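Worked example

This section walks through a single chain of length 113. The input is the sequence exactly as stored; nothing has been trimmed or padded.
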Amino acid sequence: MMANDRTVVTIGGTIVLLSGIYLAADRWEFSDFFVAWGILAVVLLLGLTGAVFIPNERRAAEAADRDIERAGSGPVEFGPEFNKANDKLAKLGPFAGLVIVLTIYVMAAKPFL
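Given that input, the structure is written out below as tokens.
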């Protein structure tokens, strides 16, 4: 999953941002709400990916590996370090999804235009 975030999300998000800026500069004003929203949404999602999702996925994976190794052949109980990292992902994942859905709406409907 971390490799997916680093490659697909980061590279794809950067391409979306750059192509959006190019298209907006050609046809729209950057002061239009839907243009500003789109740029802000992509920057926010890229920031969340680099600052929250990737580090917490790494922490959760490392903690899970330790917990699985510690359990041996018995049942695995994940510790507080895994749960803390996983909770951050569980809270911010739906927020990122909401930003994406709202961005699709704003881009399609172009409110305030």
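What to look for: Residues 2-109 form one domain.
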